[in-house]
Each structure stands twice: as C-alpha cells, then as structure tokens.
Write a structure and sequence with these properties.
The complex is a heterodimer of chains A (514) and B (331). With 514 residues, chain A is of the alpha/beta class. Chain A is built from 18 helices and 24 strands. The chains are: A alpha/beta (514), B mainly alpha (331).
Chain lengths: 514, 331
Amino acid sequence: MTGGGILAVDGVDKTFGPVQALSKVSLDVRSGEILALVGENGAGKSTLTRIIEGVFAPDAGRLLLDGAPVAFEGPRVAHAAGIRVIHQEPEIIPDVSVAENIFPGALPRRAGFLLDRRALNARAARMLALFGLERDLVPHQVCAGLGPAQRQMIEIMRAVHAGGRVIAFDEPTSSLTGEETARLFTVIRRLRADGVAVLYISHRLAEVVALADRVAVLRDGHLVDVMPVANTDEADITRKMVGRALTSLFAARSPPRPDTVLRVRGLTTDHVTDISFDLKVGEVLGIGGLVGAGRTELAKGLFGVHARRAGHVDVAGCSLPSGRPADAILAGLGFAPEDRKEEALLLLRSVVDNAALCIPERVSRFGLFDRRRARSIVAEVTGRLALKAPSLETAVADLSGGNQQKVVLARWLARAPKVLILDEPTRGIDVGAKSEIYALIAELTRAGVGVIVISSEMPELLGLSDRILVMSGGRITAHLQGAERTEDAILRAAIPGSAMLPVAVPAVDCGEVS
Amino acid sequence: MTNQSAAGVLPPASRPIAAAVERIGIHNVSLILALVVLLIIFGVQRGDVFFSARNILNIGMGVAILGVLAISQTAVIVSGGLDISVGAIVGLTTVTTAMAIDATGAAGAGPVAGMTVGALAGLFNGLIITYGRVNPIIVTLGTMAIFRGIAFIISDGQSISIFNDSFRLLGIGRFLSIPAPIWVLVGVAVAFYVFLHLSVAGRNVYAIGGNPIVARLSGLNLRGYRIAMYVVSGMVAGIGGILLAARTGSGQPISGSEGLELEAITAAFLGGCAMKGGKGTVIGALLGVAIIGVLNNGMILTGVPTFYQMLAKGSLLILAVILAEYRQNKA
C-alpha cells in the first residue's frame, strides 16, 4: 500500500492464430489513480488484463514495474509482485469463514500449530472496519451463502492484505445492484487514496466517467486514446470506441418473405425473461448486446438446452415442446454454438463423423452406419462450403478455425433446417473464411431458411441483418429495423443503465421511461 | 436483490432450539434424526437385545475400525481427493503387523510395522496422484489391487498367527470396561478434530480443497498438503490393520476386503463431505459411522439376509453421494 507503484505496458503485441488481439499497446497505471479501460467486446481488454496478470505472455513488447522490465511467468509471479485482478466471478473458498477467506495462507497461529481464531477474527474485523464493511460481513460467518458483492469485497481485502499495489477490476459491477455499486466505488476510491494503482475495466461508461481519473480506449486491439476524464464525456468515449467504417464483405441478399417461420412469445428460462419476436422465411435476424447479456442463453432457450419456464415457440406453425434439443432438431431448428470446440465438435473424430451427426436416419442402413452414403452426403455439403481439409477422414482438431466452423455448418446444411441459429459464427476466423460464411448465410436465406445471427461484431451485425434485437440483462431492450440500425443505437440499448448514474442516484430505476 | 447482503449475515438465533441447531449444524442435526429413526425401528423390532449394554458395545466394536477409516477418508476428501485403497491397506498391514511380531517377538513392533507400512502405501498413492496428475479414484483403484497383491505375496497367501498377549490387548482388552478399539477410535477422532478444525494446517486443507486457485495463489503448497493427506490416510488404515490383527490374533491378506472402503466413503459423504472437496467434518463422519454401525447391527438382529444387507449398503453410498451433490448445488 506504499506509494510509487507504476505498472506500464510498452508496445505490447498479442495474436491468437490469425487474430491480432493487441497491437503495439502502450499504457501505464500510476499509483493513486483510477485508470478506466473501455472498448467493445473483442477490442482487447481481456487480453490486456490477462497479460498483466501473467496468464498470457505478450508476443512483443514489455511490462515495466516501477520502471524496471519484468516477466510475469504465470499468475503466481504477478501475484507476488503485487498485481491482482478482481474477476467478474470472485474466487472464494466456500466452506470456510470470511476471516479465513481474507487471509488464506497467512492464518495466525498459537502454540505453534493451532489456529488462533480470536486473533484471526480480530484482524478480519479491523480489515472490515477499514473498508466500512462491518455491517455487511461478519468475520466468523461461513462464505458459502454470500452474494457476489460480498465475495468481491472479500477478494479485494485479500488483495490488499497480500500487498496488492496494482489492482485491476474486470467488469466488477456486472452483477451488483446500484447500492452495491456505490459501496464498491467507495472502496475503490479508498484504495486510490492509499496509493494503489487501480485499473477499472467496464462497459458502463456512466460509471467510468463518475469514477475514473483517466480513460483508455481500445478498439480492435489498438489503443485509440488515453485522456483525462475531465476532458471527455460519454458521447466522446462512445465515438472513440466505435468509429470505424463498414466493409463490403457482405453478399447481396433478397428481401425476406412475408411468412413467419419462427414465432416466439414470452419465452422465459432461468437466464432470459419474456422474449418475443417473429422470424420470417428467408430473413436474417441479428441479436446484439454485450457478453453476458443473455444472447447465447436465448439461443439455448430456443434450442431446448435450457428448460422453458414460460412462453411458447412455434416453428413453421407447429408448437415446439420445451427442454429437449432433439425435439428442436426434429422441428427444423439448427444451432451452431459459440464455443465450437466444447459444444459443437467431436475434435478427435473425422469430418464425416462430425458432419453426419444430426442425420442418423439418412446414413444408417439396417441400423448400421452407412459410411459410403455418409461420405457422399458430406462431400456434397462441404463442397458447397468450400471446405479445405486434407480429406473427409481428417480429424476436425487438425483443421483451422474457419474450416472447423464450416464443418459445424455442414452438419446443419445436411439436415436442411428451417431455422438456423448462429452464435458468433465468425469468432476467431480470418477474413477470407468470414466472407465465405456470409455468402453461405445469403444462400441459405435465398433457399428460405430463417437465420438468427448472434454477434458482438458491429459490422457483422449491421451488414448481415434485416432486423436487429438488442439484449441486456436477459431481456430484449431494443428492436431496430431499417434506418434505426446504427452502431450507436445498438450500443445505447446494450449498455445497461447507460441513462443513469448508479453512484449519484442508486435507488432510482429507469424502468418507467417510456 | 438489495437485501442480498443482509441475507448473508447470520440472523441472531433468538430461541434456544434454533441456537442449538445452528451450533451443531443443520446437517448434523438431520443425521442425528436419521439415527434416532433407525434406533426406533430396530428398538421396536428387537428392543430386548438391541438396547442391551452388550449390544451397544458390540456396535462400538464393530465400527471402531470403520470409524478411524471414515475420519481419515474425510480429511482426504476435504483436500479434494479420494482414497479407495484403504481396505487393501488394512489387509496389507494386518500381515506386516503379524510378521513383525512374529519376527521380533516384541508387542511394540506390531504397531510400528503397521503404521509405517500404511504410511508408505499412502505416500505411494500421494506421489502418483500429485506428480502423475492422475485422477485419485483411478490411482487408488489400481493401488488397491497392488497392495492386496503385495499382502498375498509377502504372506504367501497364508494367515499368520500372533501369539503375543500384550499386543492382543489392543483388540480384545478393556479399559474402564470399554473395549480398547473404541478408545483408539476416540483418540483418532480427537486428533483429527484438532487437526482439521483447530490447526492452521487443517484450515489450509479446507482452503486447497475448497478453491485450489485461491490456495495456490496464496502461496500454499498444494502438492505437499495433498501428499500428506494420503500419507495420513494410509497411516490411519495401518491403525485399522493393527486393530484388526489384534482382534483376530492373525494377519490375513484377505482381511479388510469386504467393502470396508465402501463403508468408509459412505460414512464420509453421509457426514457432509462434498465430491469436489473443501467440505466435511469429523463429527459428521462419526455420525455417518454410527448410522452404518446401527444399520449393520440392526439388520443382523432382525434377520435381514446377508445378500440383502449388501444391497442396502450399496444403496446407502449412492444415496449419500446424491445428498452431497444436492447440497452442493443448492449452496
């Protein structure tokens, strides 16, 4: 907690496969200041955070601590150097007390080996008093039932106890109420007063303007600007976050037809609330919003991965039962999940095995797998997709990200669905394969398939979609069509509470705005 | 949502019953209730025999070895592991205990040989699990066969008799009219209570099992603690082997093979352990052991056929784990 700590990144580059996540980023966090780091999804905020905490090593560039170059070989080394990241999901030891959670690995002893619980609780009580949390947490209380705000506070105290000099907060308010946010800000300001260098990563520009001293804007892996908060405002920051031109990667499309292929009314699961929309034959419906807004959960609710609590879904006029992906597939839905490796592909199996997974009735003969027939079906669809693979028997793990995604799409093309849901269809894919996937989406819509595209990439969302739904907090917050579809409108609907300042008026809800 | 912070704080227990429940723990209270139900069932059926002092001591004798194993199993599970080789270690250490007494003629050589060999077996488990990064269930499934095999090899498949009366007091002697094995169980329980709940090292075991990431980043030596828990588990299984050898007057390579590890693991999960570690208490384990002991004894007294007793025990293990997972998901 002594002053003088400065962490600097100097000319840091980081690429993942074909994706340039960070490009020549230079930035410093000073002792006793709050530096906000803002940017759209995929701008490079998390990559930068993970480099600072030693999870990734930069491809080029250096990290400097107090002016001296350092190499953080793993989080443990970064920890020892006093660098802490408070993650969205705070790490807690569930079945031990609050006090033990604040001082893990440093419990006071008596008689050489016994835990001195009285000293421990007294020490925890002092720490709680220091942060004004005496009424929120009790030292001897078990942590298992604590809410996210309390867990976060414990992690902050743990970081301070361990001599944290640079503390980064990764979207700390995403699961906090207005009141809890206000308390967190008090604590963060306290840290600043004690000389801690605070890095504050957030989508919520109102918070950034209220809390930070300086704000750094990342866009597509580049540092666009670093400026004192006093010299800027939300509109200016938004402009710097977004500002880029649409490219012409997108194929021309015929307009959607009037018939409705998917009708969703009041769909509610444990993760999304009261979702209603229609999808026309041959239409592309974009779904925008921030990571964690409930977009993937909406897809999973439609596809039956999550059980429906309320509402109903009709596919081509037939009611779809809740809670079973098998029923969704039979009804004519297809779903290409965001996490290809975990949720879509059998990585060690061949292209044929993967692509023929959802057409068992077409590739079985007398109950046996008809490999020749499967090969001919898969060869036909992968040909349409221009899949580049050594052979159809190649294990999917050996293909590039773009070609893996094409295998997932081939699976659904073979099935000929009525509705295809694509969750981040071009994540981690190079530009060439991207435009091929866009062309395929155009081809599908010509054939009458209704396509739902979930995307965090603004150009993709705007370039592909006929209409755009924006989600936030598990609900649809905007329905944009025609000229309403602008980056600004999407961002405004996506950023929760962008109309209110949680610090100034925590109790006021903006729900009655009509 | 706003009062979530208030809900986390324990409300002051106003009524004495609520206070007592809170102190003992709701989970332990439910175990006590289950035990009472069993006592009532068997008491109604065979009250004449069931509640006799002789039968109660019988139950105690029956669960003494199981008890020490369930307690050390709890420590292993809290650290995030599992040890299913303990039954085989019991068998192996009855043999080494008998051989040591046979070779030296000294009563003290038995316990030394039993505990040393048990600790070495545990060290073997711990080293493979931590350095080989292999799932503990698989490793101890393998070493279960290995240890059993070693027991047969070194004994040549024969039972080894123990003719040393002072050693046999450990199994059949009494102190204050309570059988010696029960005293050993009490000693082990007190030692583990102090270790797990009162010592710094024990609290660190909860930390590494509850959240290995936090523990590692807080500078705790995860590997060291994990290995130590398997060594302790092996050593306590050695104590089990010593008790068994003293009671039967022999070292038998086949002993401890009748589902002893299954019962110990059942008791640990009944007692409140969680599959993923970081949770479990000595008191809970003892209550779990008591339930199993009463169930075993009651089923024999009421004439439930042996084969059906096996069904009951297997079902109890699965039920205990379902309960543990259910609690985990609710938390």
